[in-house]
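Weekly puzzle thread! Below is a chain. First person to post its structure in C-alpha cell form gets bragging rights.
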Amino acid sequence: MDRRNFLTQTIVAGSAAAFGSAVPAETGSFEKTRIIGISCSPRRGKTTAAAVQTALDAAKEVDSRIEVQLIDLGGFNISGWVGGAKPDSPQIVGDDFEVEVEPYLMAPNLGGLIIGSPVYFRSMSALCKSFLERLYVMRTPTMRLADKPVGALAVGSFRNGGQELVIEQITTAMCCYEPFIVGGKPSAHQGATLWNNYNDDITKDEFGLNTAKLLGVRVAEAALRTQKIN
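Winning reply:
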C-alpha cells in the first residue's frame, strides 16, 4: 500500500468514528453528503476563512443530510505543480497537502466544494494557485470531481477590487476537473464577493456575507441533486 492510499484509508476510518457510523462504500448510498470549504488565504482564521465558513453554515441549513467541513490552508506548506509530474503518475511531494488536505477530499461522500481566495494584485493567492494545481490527484484513476458542484468566493480590500476576476480564475482552473460551476441565487450569479473594509471584521459586510450565503445554499442544493443519498 502506498503512502497516499494509506492516508486516504486512515482518514476515512477516522471520519467514520467521528460521525458515529461506518463510511459507506463509494458505490453505495450515503446518509450525509459533505460540502468542503477551502480557505486559500495565508492568513489563517481571517476574513477569507470566515467568508467560507459563512457559506458552509448556509449550506448546512439547507437540509439535515448536508454536513460541512472547513479546511483553512493558512500556515500550510503546499507546493504547486511539480515539474515532470503527470496526472496519471504524480510525483510524491511530501508536504502539508498530502497529510492535511488530500485525505479529506478523498472522502467517498464528498458532495461539492466551496473555494475561497483573497484578492492579491487582482489575482488569486499563490496558495490558492498551488491548491488548484495539486488537485490533480482528483483526476486519477477517475475524475472524482466530475459533475460535482463547485462554487467560488473572493475577498478584496475594495468593493470592486478584483473579486470577480479571482472567481473567474478559480472556476476556469476547476474546469480541468470536470465539475459544474455554480453561483448564488437569486443574485451572486458568478460567486460570492466580499469586501474587507472593516479591519478584518468581515461580519460588517452585510452585502458580501449575503452573497456567501447564497453561494452556500446553491452548492448544497446542487449537491443533493447529484449525490446519491438516502
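Puzzle host: Confirmed. Bonus trivia for everyone else. The chain has one domain: 3-9+32-226.
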